[in-house]
Every structure is written in structure tokens, then in C-alpha cells.
Amino acid sequence: AAPAAAPAAAPAPPRSGGPRLDVVVDDIRVSPGDASAMGPTPCGVDGVNFALYSSRAKTVDLLVYFDPTSTSKQPSLRVPLDPEINKTGDAWHVRLDGIPRGGGVDPVTGAVAPLVRYGYVITGPDPPHKYDRWHPDVLLCDPYAPLIEGRRVFGDDNARQNGEKGVSTSAIDFDAPAFDWEGVTPPGRRPEDLVIYELTPRAFTRDASSGVEESKRGSFLGIAEKAKHLVDAGVTAVELLPVFHFDEMEFQRAKNPRDHMLNVWGYSTMAFFAPMTTYASAGAGPAAASREFKHMVKTLHQHGIEVLLDVVYNHTGEGSSYPFSFRGIDNSTYYMMEDSKHPYKNYTGCGNTFNCNHPVVQNLVLDSLRHWVNEYHVDGFRFDLTSCMCRDQNGTPMVSPPVIRAIAKDPTLARCKLFAEPWDCGGLYQVGSFPNWDRWGEWNGKYRDAIRRFAKGDGGLKKEFAQRISGSSDMYRVNDRKPYHSLNFITAHDGFTLRDLVSYNSKRNHANGENGRDGANDNESWNHGHEGDDGASDAVRATRWRQMKNMHMMLMCSQGTPMVLMGDEYGHTRGGNNNTYGHDNHLNNFDWNALERTRGEYFRFWSGMAKFRVEHPLLGRADFLRDDDVTWHEDNWDNEESRFIAFTLHDRGSGGKGDLYIAFNSHEFFVDAALPPPPGGTSWCRIADTNLPSPEDFTPEGKAGVGARYNVAPRGALMLMAK
Questions:
Q1: What is the pTM of this model?
Q2: Which of 421, 424, 464, 697 is catalytic?
Q3: Known catalytic residue: 384?
Q4: pLDDT of residue 25
Q5: Interhelix angle for 359-376 vs 326-334, to 10°?
């Protein structure tokens, strides 16, 4: 059907009583609606039911905008809701029929109808409760808004359809044609086959070196264009830094030492159902962002790559003072509050803590996750500061947090991978003890620290190093948990890149505007005798590249789920800054020219090891190692000075390609290692030796000629396969 004609925008009428049952105004039928589902829901041919939760509101007005150029002060329709007719329990609701619903295509002209925008104006009791934060002069976004209209170009507040700065609105496009998935379905990879690539959406193709058309740089379409690189790199899943709509200009709301920055990482969610508007190509807006996100997911799935989202349910971008949605709707329901000078409990370091174990907020979290699975076909989630979600409404840690259990048990999420960041900024640290119901995996911070320390040569670590590369069975071999519930990583978005980890002893964060106070101080890094890149000798540089290969090999040879950081495949540097959340520049941007410079050497090794891991079942096991699965060539476990470790993973007819002998030497001298006899009828062949130049450092087909002993180089790693 042709899209309905949009009524002309008019000044908002004065507030009056709500609709009495069914009322028809200018061919628009206004009826009570219902509270069966929160947010906007399409009804019939041209109807929409709007529902909003607020236990504290005194009045609620729905404002609807049909004209894309009208400001927030010029609604096409303003509907005051009558609590006697339009309220069920604490849910306010109304249904509108005979309205445009956005996105419809005229069958004759092909013209696409504009989005329909809407929002709420809410007042509360007078005097307000001490935890209330009413903003009757602010148009508030719906917590369930599927799209957000506002700024359309990243960092450009002038790029708005209606020219009204500082105002965002909820939006719908219910009459848009359904997206054509062309029969593409999620890859459905086994958990043990994941190699996760942590990717910053904007920074991945923002640089001109990407070769992506300028209008697509930094967009979802840009990521889709680079799917082949991800395949070439050997990764099987991407973990996208936050793509829920956020305010990249939040640091510029008021004068402050950080107002020169833009939020590039996105850890300040404003809307839990809407894709980031400015990640659409060419400033095309929220409907395009939605379509292009789906195109990106479809393209990655076509290449066998799963899509995981880094989600932030622990706080919102409202901080402690900015009204956008939740704060002005039902502050004390959505946030943890306390009696103090700063009444927002702050277990996140970001000014507020989302009240996830309140039943209403829990429902929002579950509805949001289901939305991204059903509507966008994503394959899993990593939850930022997940321990915040393990606290009750008073901030007390819970043994069995309802929201964590509900996520684990939800049937819609059953196919999804779930990973927790099992700590928060309030001191709750749950690595190895996160409530999991045998579903949740964890970012293993103990793995990161042990690998970094062993690689740089710290003593007394052999036992722990062996535990960590074996899947951390001391922490995860409980009930029906598996090795892949340990998400192993050495680097991530926050912290040093792999190259900076071997180049700097200390962080260099002064560009962040906080006099170097921000970012972690305990990086377990080592500069190998010279701070930074400038002036480093060839010998130092060579050792650093070898150490990067060593750590990447450690990660790929570990039981568990490996995660790598975007840019580590070519040695990206941030110049020692370990907290680059606000830099929309070279510090975060992927350098595609640098990738080409390393393609034949370091990238060849890096990607080859990732592919070898996926192809060799001994390196990604579904179950923990048994005694007959591994032999440790070690009688020196308690020697604090020993920094050499070697072991053999046994095939034993399990469908592998042969036994693997693996050794890591963090000494400053060669270790003449006696090799165990290979299985009968086979010989040891060299797969990797990080001390050798490319292409000898990695020979996936195996290099014959290995004898009974092998001289493992200082700061070196070795892998042999029985063939």
C-alpha cells in the first residue's frame, strides 16, 4: 500500500484530558491501547500501540512527528494519556490508527516515506521524591525505541534533518520493506571453534588507507566490505565494540578537560534497541543504519564469521545529570540510588549503575537481547562490567542474580554465545566464580596476566602458566563447564596493544586530558630495554616482533576461546596510550598500509597460526585435558628460576592431524631440549619456530628433518607435529 499522507506539523496544543475511549481527530483514531508489550508495536494496517513503564509519573504525554523537518516543539500530534483509561498497573499506553508508520514505499513513484518520530513529555508529583528527576521541558526517548533520529554524521552536531541541536527522538519505520536475508543463516559454529576478533566499528575502516569509499568509511557497510580480510586473518567471529546508539559527543556537553575528544569506543548506551545512527553510510540516518547493520551481519555470515556484540547494560550515557530517557521516566526504577551527596550508586565509574535486577529493568534487558537476535541475527554477546548485573537494588552482590539466570535460561538466546566481563569498578571480582548455569563464559583476566608475565620472563610462573594454557581447569572444571568458557586474551580495547605491550614500560595517556591519571597502571609490559619506538635499535625491534609472535602462539595454543585485538595482526601502536576511548584518529584507526607492509612476514605468521588452531582439533578441545591427553616434559615445576616449559598434546585417534609438541622459552639463552619419541611410524616436523625468519617461522605443512633434540632459541616458541 502507498504510505499514508503525513499530516502537517502544528504547534503542540495545550495539554488537556486524555482520550476517552475511542476518539477520531483528522482521520486519526486514538484509543486506549494496551500494555501487552513495551515500546511501539505495529497493529493492523496503519496502527501503532505505544506503551511505556513509569511507576512514578503523574502525567504522560505522547508526542508524534510526521514532518521530518519539524522540531521537538512542533509535534503533529500530542496525546495526553488519562491514567484512568491509558494506564494498566504502572504501564501507560495508547493506540493510534490511521497514521503514517514510516518507511513505506509508494508503488508508483518509488518514494520512501520518512520516519515517524515520537517521544514523551512527563511530569511527576510535586514535591518530587528525593530520587525523582523530572524534566517536563525535555522530550524523552522511549527506552524501547527501535531507532533514534538526531545527529546523522559522527561528531557533527549540525548534521540533523531538522537543524535542532541537542535533541534526539525515538523513531519507527514499520512500513519499510522487510530486509532480504537471501536465505543466509547464522554459521552456528561450535564454541570450541571460535577465534574472536575484537573490532571497533568506526575505527576499522575510518582511515583512507582502507580503500573504502569515503561515504562508507567508519560505517557498518565498511565492515562488510572488509569481510575477506577477516577470513584471511583466520578469525571465525567478530566482537563489535558497542553498536547500541550512544552519544559520541558526550564529552562536549559542558566545558571540561576531555572536551576535545569524541567517544569512539561507545561504552555509553543511550538506547538499547537502536543501532548507532551515525554508523550508517553517507549520513543516511537511523533506518539506513538498521538496514546496513543487517547487510553487514548477512555478509559476515556468508563468509562463515559469527557476530558477537559488546553490550553495556551496567550503566547508561545519561551519567548523573543528562536527561535523555530513563532518568526522566522513572529514575529510581532504572538506576541504583542511595542517600548521599551523589545519590547515584556508581559501580561502573561512569556516574550511574543500571538497576538490572529490578523486574522491569530485567525485562528490558531480556527484550533488548531477544530483539538483536531476532531482528538482526546476531550470534552472541559480551557483557561489559557484568558483575554490576550481579548486584541487587541496594548494590549487594547476589549469589543467583535473576537477570543473569534469565539470560542463561532464555530459549531465544539458547544458540547465543555469552561472555561476561566478570568484574566491576566497585571491587567485585568474579573471574572463575561468575554465576553461570553452565552457559556463561568469562573474560579470563588471570589468563591475560599470567601470559604477559611469563612471556616477559617473570619467575615462579610455570605452574600457573600451565594451568592457563590448559583451559584454566582450576577455575572452570565445575559442573558442566567447558574449556571454551574461558575467554583467553592478552590484549583488548582497553590497555596496551600487543606492540605497545612489548614497547612501553609505562602508559602515555596525557592526550586524554586527565594528566595521565586514567588507564591501568599494572600493565605487566616490558619495553625490552628502550621506551617506545623512536630510537629503538634493530636488535630491540627484532626481539619485540619475536615476542609478539610468541604471545600470539601462546594464545593460539591454549585451550579455551581465544580473542585477539583489531590491529594486532600487523602490530598497531597507540604510542603507549592504554585508554584511547576518545580519540577519533590514528591512535584507534586501523592502518591498512601497515597491514600491507607486514603481510608477507608478521601477518603471515599471525594469520597462519589462527587458521592452524581452527584446523587442528587438539588446540580447541570441547572437553578438559585428561592425563592421557597431554604429557608435560617437566620435572622442574617448583624451580622459581625456570622459564622453559614443553608439553605434547596427544592425538590418540581423536581425529586430529597428529601429536603436537609445543615449547616456550622465556630465558635469555638457548635451551637444548630432548624431544620425546614421536608415535610409531611418524617423525617430528617443524610447524613454527618464532626465532626463524619468514617464511621459515611458520610452515603449516610441516618441515621435515627434526632430530632427537631441538635447540629452542632465547625468547622463542616452538611447535612440532608428528607426521
A1: 0.96
A2: 421
A3: yes
A4: 72
A5: 120
